[in-house]
Amino acid sequence: MKFCLHLSTRIEKKYENRLLKFMTELAIEADAGGFSAISLTEHHLHENQGYQNSLLFACALAPQLKRTTLILATVNPALHHPLRLVESCNLIDQLNSGRLVVVFGSGFKDTDLVAFGRDLSERHTLFEKALSTALDVWAYDGTGGPLEFTVGSDRGRLEAPVNPSSFRNPRPILARGTLNREAVEETARRGWPVFTTGKNPDAAREQMTAYHAALEAAGHDAETVQIARDWSSVAKAVHVAETDDQAIAEATAFFAKNPSGAIARNPEDMICGSPETVIRAMRPFAETGIGTMICGCLIDVEKPEMLQRSIRLMKEEVIPNVGAAA
User: Fold this and answer.
1) Does residue 21 sit in helix, strand or coil?
2) N or C: which end of the chain has fewer CB within 10 A?
3) Is 113 helix (H, G, I), strand (E, B) or coil?
4) Contact at 8 Å (CB) between 44 and 52?
5) pLDDT band at residue 326 under the 50/70/90 scheme
6) Residues contacting residue 317 through CB under 8 Å, at least 6 positions apart
7) DSSP state of 315
8) What is the pLDDT of residues 126-144, one digit of tens each?
């Protein structure tokens, strides 16, 4: 099981520049070793997202990374013009030498759709249409006549392939973020990694068992299956301190100051404790067949040393031991 550092946090206007620099430093630290990936998410006009535009932030990070994969988890295609989305993903894929996973999801905030003028009553139709159109744009080679499309209020006509093309042929690694059983199995049939959440190892095992069965039944080639298994992920909030009491106290204080959150809203939702406690909690997840654990951290720009210590303990004590056990 690989590990991914998830960069998403609450923001106050007075800390915007400071937070962006801090998250850039965290990404470079993760790239130096221990973590195999760095994930960014997409929210707009919402307090728990410091950079808002994950595509632009990924373009800023990619030239500074040497080894880690960038994961966009998740991108809602209904918020983007299909051509611009494909161009942006291809550019990130080029800048990071093919180390990119684009995870499509419909999001959990209505405010995103409203901000971009999307009809909430058509959110699922828009998602599916925007996704299928983006795939058509990726596949278009300029032959057979122009490609014309309409997605909601967005329209386009292509007569030549998109530039730049993706580094990875024929497109970046694509994935789907979902909790829906039918969508999990459809993702497997596509040969894509699935991104989900699991409050406990039993829930994660149930999701992964259904996914792996559908993946094997789909008849994909060995490389497709390996990529899908490697990058199929579960997200958990993680915080490590020297002792259990210290970790729980720090997490409790963090959530008192930041009560909203997508992955966790209290220490009970997290994997939280000393290195030994965190290792014991993570091993059952590793045994479920998860390819990657996305670790959401307590990013507090007023207490950077707390997160820096947690990441150091993850890299030096947790990750090597969980990986060895798995």
Assistant:
1) helix
2) C
3) helix
4) yes
5) very low
6) 240, 275, 279
7) I
8) 999 999 999 999 999 999 9
Residues paired with 271 in a beta bridge:
238
**Shortest CA distance to 310 belongs to which of 211, 243, 233?**
243
Pairing of strands 233-240, 292-296: parallel
The pairs formed by 256-263 with CB atoms below 8 angstroms and a separation of 24 or more are: 257/300, 258/10, 258/48, 258/300, 260/10, 260/47, 260/48, 261/10, 261/48, 261/237, 262/8, 262/41, 262/48, 262/108, 263/6, 263/197, 263/235, 263/236, 263/237, 263/296
pLDDT in tens, 52-111: 899 999 999 999 999 999 999 999 999 999 999 999 999 999 999 999 999 999 877 788
Peptide bond into 146 cis (omega under 30): no
Taking a C-beta distance cutoff of 8 angstroms, is the pair 298, 247 a contact? no
Higher pLDDT, 326 or 274: 274
CB distance 204 to 290 below 8 Å? yes
Question: What are the Cα distances from residue 269, in Å, to 272, 290, 321?
Answer: 9, 19, 22
Instruction: Establish how many alpha carbons lie within 13 A of residue 98's alpha carbon, considering only the half-sphere containing its beta carbon.
Output: 5
Is residue 306 a contact partner of residue 15, using CB atoms and an 8 Å limit? no
Higher model confidence: residue 175 or residue 268?
175
Tens digit of pLDDT for each residue in 237-296?
A: 999 999 999 999 999 999 888 776 656 778 998 999 999 999 999 999 999 999 999 999
pLDDT of residue 31: 97
Helix (H, G, I), strand (E, B) or coil at 298: coil
Residue whose token pair is 């728990």: 48
CA-angle at 282, arms to 272 and 311, nearest 5°: 55
Q: What are phi and psi of 217, to 5 degrees?
A: -75, -15
Instruction: Catalogue all structural domains in the chain, each as residue range(s) with its CATH number.
Output: 2-325 (3.20.20.30)
